[in-house]
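Following up on my earlier thread - several people asked me to post the actual chain instead of describing it. Fair enough. Here it is, all 468 residues.
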Amino acid sequence: MARPRLDPARLALARFGLGVSTALSDADLAAIGRDPKGALLAELNAPERPLGAEPVSSSEAGAQERAFQQQQNAERAANRMQGPPAPPTGPQVQGPPAPPPANPIQGLVQAELIARYGRASDPVIGIRERLVWFWSNHFCVSMDKGGLVRVIAGSYEREAIRRHVTGSFAAMLMATTRHPAMIAYLDNGRSIGPNSVAGRRQNRGLNENLAREILELHTLGVNGGYSQQDVTAFATMLTGWTIGQPNDPDAVPFRFRFNPRTHEPGPKTVLGRTYPEGEEGGLTLLGDLARHPATSLHIATKLVRHFVADQPPQALVSTVSKAFSASAGDLKATVRALVEAELSWTMPETKLRQPVEWVVALHRGLGLAPDIGRIQRALNVLGQPTWRVTSPKGFPDETAPWLDGLAQRVDVANLFARIVPAAQNPLAIAERLLGPSASPETRQAIRRAESPQQALTLALLSPEFLRR
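Reply from S.P.:
Thanks for posting it. Predicted structure:
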């Protein structure tokens, strides 16, 4: 038997938001249900609120990471100078082990996670947060790179993504490309123009990683009409785009720096247009890429695939693409076109919630505070650890790659069901989470459960809660 469609409020919360929250009253849900498009657009138009106790900037985090590394290097050098410890003599009293040295890196990462998932618990639909996650995955970096990227992946999301999430795509593109996290992640600091002052002395050459990923993943798309020659020319334009170091008198430490000594001299031609040498040439090209028709189609397709359907309806892609082009890449206008389109609401709920969407929906729906350790453990088990993508492509947006993790979701759902006080009625919780969309089969399975915990687990694993 086909299950009922989600009611308008829960469809808005699941497809475009973060799920039903116990902090949303029945009156709130009723208001969303009466005008789901209006509720989403009102949230989209609302000014961005501060994150509360906002973590430190990327430059400050980089300075702390550098100081910690220097401290560790000095301690290792001192230990080598002292040689191995002398063997003990006489009777020994075994005391408690010395505590490990304080690691500020863990504190920096923890603060970013608290800010991110604290915001996700706010009593709103959550469309702005979903957009932050979408664009953070589109312009992704990975903590697994180590070093500076591990420390500033969270501040990168705040500074380059969140700040522009309802602004200009061109501004977001430039912010992400010039951010130290992206430059370090894709090794652009190591890219040196062969004919630059530094290149002639060091006999080092180009690194094409950043140029290739901007064209293939961030703007035009894999079939966007560029060639290998364009990639190489673009890479020469991006030489000199690096990160300021503490010992550099001409730079702000751990901020973007253009270094003319490593920049490839001379004009460059990309996609049939010639650009001047210097930083300005690269900025102009980024602006052209942001306005390119292939970029419009690529971004529209990704948005529709992420929010609506694995196989994006071409009519809906066209609507969103036209809004992107007509507004010169205004992201608020682009998302407004997606929300207002009827196809966004009539397509069946066939997409599986990604692990992060599902885990956050569990917290919101069960009224649990965002425990960062619990969230991270669940996401590690489910294959979507925060800011730890396995490639520059980001985590997949399609359903199929996440199906293998359904067995692990059973374990996670059982864990969450045990956390909920036994006094709470699982039928009432299920009704709150699923509403009138719960099928007769789901309701019957919950009623026949052998325990309240099993009943709640079944609700959390129901098709109505897993899919959007």
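Residues 355 and 384 are 6 Å apart (CA to CA). That should answer part of your original question.
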